[in-house]
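seq:
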Amino acid sequence: MVYSTYSDSGILVRTGRWTAGSDGCFLESFSILTLTDTVMPFRNQLDLILAHAHKVVDAEGTPVLVRFFLSDPANQTAVLCERMGLDCPVSIIGQAPLNGTKIAAMVWCRKEAKLSRISDRMHRISERGIDEYWYTNGLSDSEGSYGQTVSLLDELSSGLESQGLTLETNCMRTWLFVQNIDVNYKGVVDGRNAVFDRHGLTPDTHFIASTGIEGRTASHNNKVMLDAVAVSGPGVLVKYLHGESHLNRTSQYGVRFERGTVVEYPDRRHVYISGTASIDNKGKILYEGDIVRQTERMIENVEVLLAEGGCGFSQVGSMIVYLRDIADYAVVNKIFDTRFPDCPRVMVQAPVCRPGWLVEMECIAVY
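struct:
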């Protein structure tokens, strides 16, 4: 991964580019857009973020995924949607940027991909005979977090089946954003388990890489929001990552997701690292109450997963770091500035699924 950074008039854009061949031409890029002016009104922050998001797309190629992180989705989502001007997979989630601004964005692009819309929530990204299906901003009117989780996973499954795919075979990664996660996460876990049982996703087969994290939407009725990606095409191989020296199987404490997944294409690999915290291989939270040691162990766990996937942090294109307590931002940000000064990343406020976990991270690598 080749990293670059530029700042301009109150915005900081960090980009990681994956290059192939001796000519150094890049085929994939990840950009994280963060603002530096914390007193600018939201509409001005939005205009600045959108202007540079479009600039990134113009320079980097087809947008695979654009995710916006908002500090107040109830008041900000409508105006974002009005002004966005992006016809691609877009995810909008209430997770406040921890640098004190109101909005941040992640933009993932591919130079040679083609984009087509299947429905309001599903797009196809086609490249080299491979199709990715992105399902974003999935919301449900069903009752409670259990009902909404079941409804959303069923909708995802039906959408994939309409394209000749299945949830159990083709879905590689999900993100489950949960309002008031300390209360509603059990319903998400139970709902996912129920759907996975129907699809034969069990401890004896495999699960799907995932992040389950606090996240709000524009409506207080939405307890859960779902994003997901599925893959189909010749020559695609899948490997599931466990990191058993440092982490346990998630099914041992009643949840079902893979710690990470490698999706191998004919010319590259994508490594999706699920939301990872300070845990040991017995499923125990390590260093309760100690944000520094939890952060260090979390990074170590991710490093083990990346190594099992055949790469390391130098191949990571983007990182998202979730903190329960905004007061820990300065400490954790300093650790990441020291360890990963160039890697595109954003830190947001989002409690993890167990109160004892103070910090969690996820990342995507390409090599």
